[in-house]
Amino acid sequence: MKKDFLSLADLTAAEFEELLTLTDVLKTSPHIRPLAGKSVALIFQKPSLRTRVSFEVGVVELGGHPIFLSQEGIGIGVREKASDVAELVSRMTSMIVARLYDHAVLLELARHATVPVINALTDLSHPCQIVADVYTMRQHGKLKPGAKVVFVGDGNNVVNSWLEVCELIPLHFVLAAPKGYEPNPDILNRAKKRGVSVIEIIDDPYAAVRDADVVYTDVWTSMGQEAESERRKRDFAGYQVNVQLLSLAKPDCIFMHCLPAHREEEVTSEVIDGKQSIVFDQAENRLHAQKAIMVKLMEEYNGLDGYRSRHSAEVMEH
Ligand code: CP
Ligand code: NVA
């Protein structure tokens, strides 16, 4: 049975740990070629720098051939139904990576594809980002049980994926967001009910960041929300991550951002270029994490074996 990577909620804690381990393996062993002789379709309805480059380079490094398909080129839902795209692409390639607006279209693609499908961001979630983020936290010695991760800003797709990872590793996750910008209620309720992590949503960013190990932010206006940009700038005015806000966190707190950043809006240049910022480690780790996700899916799909046990890193440092 083919396996997809659509949501972190579909993974077990052990599978997530295996992804982090595999990310380590691939970062240090560039000679694994499970995609030799295979092609991977990259279907992108939205713009991208990090995700597109990391998948294209990742496929090449794994021995495969990436085919970039833009919305202008293939017109999912306009020129052709998503189900027909899935059928056709499955006959010619070995994997589909899709960045889409509507999560329902991703699910439709996955339902009709006979090859693995990877969620490269939808309006609902961004699981590939969070694999790289948690890996980067660990790289910087911040992945300890109960580590306090404070996300300042919109309860968007990135936050939804943070909530999903809260079911897999024990964190203290706090979202500081204005009223009306809460995350997806189903994802939030499920993560709270699981009880693996402590989860709080508050509207005061200054109270939220106290004693934080990680302060994270993202744009106030995500792709597809451009018409709301002026209203969002007003609503998020008090939610900028600046030196004053960051000074309330632990002195060795790290600053994270999935990028792209709108400097002087959600974050000041002083913070994003400052010594606590690890945003480019995060961005680089997208490549290694993406490769891990693809190898894992090929392994599941084709019965490939043997990359796993060489590194036995545990998810949490104690
Ligand atoms: N963080 C991220 O997904 O960046 P891109 O939108 O540039 O791919
Ligand atoms: N929330 C942002 C993330 C970009 C990587 C967006 O969806 O535009």
Would you kindly provide a written description of the structure presented here, covering whatever features stand out?
Helices cover 40% and strands 14% of the residues. The chain has helices spanning 13-28, 50-61, 71-74, 82-92, 103-112, 127-139, 157-165, 185-194, 205-208, 229-235, 243-246, 269-272, 279-302, and strands at 39-44, 65-70, 95-99, 117-119, 147-152, 171-176, 198-202, 214-217, 254-257. α2 links the parallel β1 (39-44) and β2. The protein is globular. Residues 308-314 have low confidence and may be disordered. Norvaline is lined by residues 156-158, 218-219, 222-223, 258.
Cα-based radius of gyration, to the nearest Å: 19 Å
Q: What is the CATH domain class of the largest domain?
A: Alpha Beta
**Unique ligands:** phosphoric acid mono(formamide)ester, norvaline
CATH topology of the largest domain: Rossmann fold
Number of helices: 13
Output the keywords.
binds norvaline; Rossmann fold; five-stranded parallel sheet; alpha/beta; 318 residues; binds phosphoric acid mono(formamide)ester
Topology:
Layout lengths: L12 H16 L10 E6 L5 H12 L3 E6 H4 L7 H11 L2 E5 L3 H10 L4 E3 L7 H13 L7 E6 L4 H9 L5 E6 L8 H10 L3 E5 L2 H4 L5 E4 L11 H7 L7 H4 L7 E4 L11 H4 L6 H24 L16
Parallel strand pairs: 1-2, 1-3, 3-4, 5-6, 5-8, 6-7, 8-9
The structure holds phosphoric acid mono(formamide)ester (CP) and norvaline (NVA).
The site of norvaline has 8 residues, from α7.
